[in-house]
Amino acid sequence: MEEKTPKQIWYDKAGKKVVEALKKRNFDAHYVSTSKEATEKIFELIPKTDVVSWGGSETLRTLGIQEKLYEKGYTVIDRDTAKTPEERADLMRKGLLCDTFLMSSNAISEDGQLFNIDGNGNRVAAMIFGPKSVIVVAGMNKVVKSLDDAISRTKNFASPVNVQRFKNLNTPCAVNGVCSDCTGPESVCAYMVTTRLCRPAGKIKVILVGEDLGF
Predict the structure, then answer these.
(1) What is the pLDDT of residues 24-42, one digit of tens each?
(2) Does domain 6-209 have CATH number 3.40.50.10330?
(3) What is the pTM (predicted TM-score) of this model?
(4) Alpha-carbon gap, residue 40 to 51, rounded angstroms
(5) What is the 3-state secondary structure (H, E, C) of 50-92?
(6) Each residue of 73-84: pLDDT tens digit?
(7) Which residues contact 212 (CB under 8 A, 6 or more apart)?
(8) Is the CB of residue 134 less than 8 Å from the CB of residue 203?
(9) Which end of the chain is more exposed for a tag (fewer CB within 10 A), N or C?
């Protein structure tokens, strides 16, 4: 077995403390050290009979979760199969009534709060209400000290990096890489949501991974 780096050892120690904080806020929280363990835990938490959908997530893409759902024969609601913008919007709405919704989180504070910024709102909407179960998968690189740090990380790092995936956007951060707190029609920062408690208890399942995943 390959020896762990100091950073990985630190992640293992700090991650377990964050999981304790999440559990105190009624999240069903788990810590795993590796991407392989994260993938195993995800499918352990999804009944084979569930209809599954997901929000845009570099973390899920890196883990190959969407492809594995198809390989394992799950029934999915996949907006990327849409042939028109109207069909895509309809699939996104249907995803809000799936059994299990998969996503990541832009940031997690050490005291167990999730913070997310959304452009369309479907990802944060699913977390708040709709699906029977929500699974949040996040690398330890997204854990920060406080809620203020979570907001700062998301606005000044995660969102400006995220928009670089979309070549046709003309927001300030897409052009110069810096958040300008814009209010234009293309802004990807329309909805800002803090999840400070999980209600009902256990609906949101957080899998914290001892690796750098997503942005």
Answers:
(1) 999 999 999 999 999 999 9
(2) no
(3) 0.96
(4) 18
(5) CEEEECCCHHHHHHCHHHHHHHCCCEEECHHHCCCHHHHHHHH
(6) 999 999 999 999
(7) 139, 140, 141
(8) yes
(9) N
